[in-house]
């Protein structure tokens, strides 16, 4: 089976990108990271990608001002140039238009640092702590036009500790992110994920063990 060609879109640090690159080093992994693209020329993740020998591209949103469709046309051109099959958003801080999202329907993944549908948007760890949440975590989902929504592919949870602050909680959630993103991409690249009625079925069932990481994990 040929490996799916994946573009990872970043805006910053790129630790999830690095986790995907690491997973894809395994020849048996069903996807290869063919491109890392950033909307910010100064994203630190670009250097990490280059060091790993991966093609990089910068599509600077600032060049296009408020013209989102023009930015996305430039992005689409780069994706086509690299014959991309699947896109993984990984800390990509631009909202994509419904037009772009529908063009990539069921081929566009995102990771969000909360157990969706709880805590959409920013500052998720702070808000989880403020709400007294006992469980928190991360979600990989297919992207829909509405922000941080879409069929859930994989989730990982951590128990919130009494002693947690934003930093410690974020650190444990990030470790979970680095596990569930490669897992979710693998399931999608293997063609095992189907969206039915707004939900993901994996191998034909709604909630397979293979797509969740539950509390009680070390760390
Ligand atoms: C992660 O927490 C991710 O869930 C969120 O943005 C952060 C990006 O971190 N969407 P990194 O750039 O992958 O290190």
Brief summary of the model shown:
With 219 residues, this protein is of the alpha/beta class. Helix content is 31%, strand content 24%. The chain contains six helices and ten strands; from the N terminus they run βαβαβαβαβαββαβββ.
Question: If you had to describe this structure to a student in words, what would you say it looks like?
Answer:
This protein is of the alpha/beta class. The chain folds into 2 domains: 1-104, Rossmann fold; 112-219, Formyl transferase, N-terminal domain (Rossmann fold, 3-Layer(aba) Sandwich). It is 31% helix and 24% strand. The strands form 2 sheets. It has an 8-stranded mixed sheet, sandwiched between helices. A two-stranded antiparallel ribbon has the order 8-9. Strand 4 (86-89), helix 4 and strand 5 form a beta-alpha-beta unit. The radius of gyration is 17 Å and the shape is globular. The termini are far apart. The structure holds 5-O-phosphono-beta-D-ribofuranosylamine.
